[in-house]
Amino acid sequence: MKDKVNINALASSLGEALRARQWRVVTAESCTGGGVAQALTAVAGSSGWFELGLVTYSNQMKTRFLGVDEALLEKHGAVSEATVEAMLSGALQCSAANIGVAVSGIAGPSGSVPGKPVGTVCFAWGTRGNCCTSTQLFSGDREQVRTDAIGFALRSLLEFSKKTV
């Protein structure tokens, strides 16, 4: 329950920050399965600042809906900073949002590949032309990895929205 409370508090704080800036947010998610969007839309009044949430689980859908280049996916894989940066760019392009986040990872219990163990999650967040990326390694079962990834995405967006002019 502690994680749920933190996620709710983060989502509410992010909503306040976005509302104050008159910004709208977009999410492009894979391993979190829409969990970031769900956390944001659980906040009352989120229709004033939540624009769009896209869950693109397969590489085909990352290409089709977010414009992620197939060659990029072949070279780096779906779980890479290059891919989430492209996912974020595509999500911002297909929406009127000012800020966004993209998430792709290996929540487990299987799916690891050499150099990318279960718990590896890549993130990109930012605005058009101002993007940050990070790769995190979370521990625990599938649910814990996804919960930790959602929390990281929300914290990253919140910190970015407070710093960016």
Commentary on this structure:
The chain is an alpha/beta fold and 165 residues long. It has a single domain, classed as Alpha-Beta Complex (Maf protein), CATH 3.90.950.20. 47% of the residues lie in helices and 21% in strands. It has a five-stranded mixed sheet with strand order 2-1-3-4-5, sandwiched between helices. The mean pLDDT is 95.
Spatial order of the strands in the main sheet? 2-1-3-4-5
Q: Over the alpha carbons, how many angstroms does the gyration radius reach? A: 15 Å
How many structurally independent domains?
1
Q: What is the string of SSEs from the N terminus onward?
A: HEHEHHHEEEH
Features:
single chain; 165 residues; alpha/beta; 21% strand
Short description:
Helix content is 47%, strand content 21%. With 165 residues, the protein is of the alpha/beta class.
Outline the secondary-structure elements.
Layout: H1 2-21, E1 25-29, H2 35-41, E2 50-55, H3 59-66, H4 70-76, H5 81-93, E3 99-105, E4 120-127, E5 130-137, H6 142-163
Parallel strand pairs: 1-2, 1-3
Antiparallel strand pairs: 3-4, 4-5
